[in-house]
Amino acid sequence: MHRAIRAGAVLAAAVPALTMTAAVPALADGYCRADHVCMWEDANYEGSRYVDVRAGGPHDIHSWHGDNEITSIDNASDLTIVMYDNDNLTGFIGCVSPHQRIPSLWRNDEMESFIARDFC
């Protein structure tokens, strides 16, 4: 009888910890929050996350925030991300579709600015 009470007490102590953990929303590294666009220094969403902004723009990626260093991207928005080789949205590179994740950009380390739009 004593063992049954002890087992029940251990189970009761474990349940609140599980509940607290489940209640805390967490994003796995390598993913972006809804309606945001994130960009990383390295392939496969690794290295420094230089960009983590709400979709919109225009956005210039400043030199100390990953200018010419973007390798992977997660577009967690309903908009298309239009990428450019230079500041001020010049030198078109290409587009990332809504909710598309690209682990290694075809034009690695070239992006300097971007904007989110309804079209490419």
From TrEMBL:
UniProt KW keywords: Signal
Pfam families: Inhibitor_I36
Gene3D superfamilies attached to this UniProt entry: Crystallins
InterPro entries reported for this sequence: G_crystallin-like
Top-rank lineage group of the source organism: Bacteria
Coiled-coil positions: none
Residues making up the signal peptide according to the UniProt record: 1-28
Designated name of the protein: Peptidase inhibitor family I36
Species this chain originates from: Nocardiopsis aegyptia
Lineage of producing organism: Bacteria, Bacillati, Actinomycetota, Actinomycetes, Streptosporangiales
